Amino acid sequence: MDTISKTDPILENPVEIQKKLIETISKEPKAARIMHICGTHERTISKFGIRSLLPPEIEVLSGPGCPVCVTPDNDIDTAIILAKKGLTVVTFGDMLRVPGTEESLFDARAEGADVRMVYSIDDAVKIANENPEKKIVFLAIGFETTIPTTAAAILRGLPSNFYIFTSLKLTPPAIDLLIQDINVDAFIAPGHVAVITGTAPFSSFEKMGYPVVVAGFESYDILLAVAMLQKQLKEGAAKIENAYPRAVKAEGNKIALKMMDDVFDVSDSDWRGLGTIPNSGFVLKEKYKDHNAAILFYDLYKDELTRLEEVRKKKKKNCICATILTGKATPEKCPMFKKACTPSTPVGPCMVSDEGMCHSWYKYNRD
Ligand code: SF4
């Protein structure tokens, strides 16, 4: 089934189906460490207490799937520098609160910099059209889920005072790197990424001998994925399966993929927690160079960025967000969790975003 349909049995009686799924999973469970790589999955898992519904033999870990969390310090610092140099920086709300090396975009705004929150690139373009005397820099973050909307706006045409600083991430190369060094038995793949990319990008899991199931974002979607992974693990299988056929087609969304291809070139990219990953990001194609903030404003930010990199090297790293993003620790292992670091006083990016693991654990995992 390719589209959302009321005839999908899982939609007709989700409570009963969840009970049955839990019964199936709990029947002679095979011990397994299952990793998801999606902030929205973490939110569903934490919100509905799915870990507590599973038998203790099954552990569900969180990987690098929150776009705010994987955005590196350098990109946040660059946006802050540009704002303090007199440009108008616009980006999504969560990004304003992520601490850079010395401060956040919110702090810069409190000091008088022109930093604005938007819900989409279209809002940012509107600001540029309404303020032709200003230079508007859009800090673009996200995965394949949101990149097509950025590409579509660019293809519609941008005002001459509109610039984009890209911190956009391409998921498959990060997956390839992640599975080289990880103690995990199976993966849940993000359904919204697969809506765009199709299932092929997750073939690395299969090739490396890991079962993988593409899942949606309701509690029953996650339970169905766990049940399907358990079946594969018990059978000794390692294949890609799609537990979200009401939204995901094997070939993905060809129109969205073409728009991305028309606008962006693939480039190396820095990921918080994973370092620089070859071919894991996007930069604007040469034909859009008049809107490329990273190139046009390089002289404005390069010296200060170098200074901040030195500051960062000397700083004691108390936040273990990078370790959490690779599934090697959970939030309660961080001494600042629920103490110095809370959603209203975030020390690291994993506590800022609604999709960050620390944020989800703080909000939903009450002791
Ligand atoms: S609790 Fe805060 S400081 Fe600790 S890892 Fe999470 S975001 Fe970083």
Protein traits:
367 residues; alpha/beta; 2 domains; four-stranded parallel beta sheet; 19 helices; 43% helix; globular; disordered N terminus; binds iron/sulfur cluster
Structural class: alpha/beta
Average of the residue pLDDT scores: 91
Along the chain, the helix and strand elements come as HHEHHEHHEHHEHEHEHEHHEHEHEEHHHH
Q: What quaternary form is this?
A: single chain
Percent of residues in helices comes to 40-55%
Task: Tell me about the largest β-sheet.
Answer: 5 strands, parallel
Annotation field: number of helices? 19
CATH architecture of the largest domain: 3-Layer(aba) Sandwich
Strand content: 15-25%
Query: What would you call the shape?
Result: globular
Q: What number of structural domains do the residues give?
A: 2
Q: Strand order, biggest sheet?
A: 2-1-7-8-9
CATH homologous superfamily caption of the largest domain: HypD, alpha/beta domain 2
Bound molecules: iron/sulfur cluster
Spans of at least 5 consecutive residues whose pLDDT stays below 50 are 1-6
Task: Please give the radius of gyration in angstroms.
Answer: 21 Å
CATH class of the largest domain: Alpha Beta
Give me the CATH fold name of the largest domain.
Rossmann fold
The span between the termini is 40 Å
Number of strands: 11
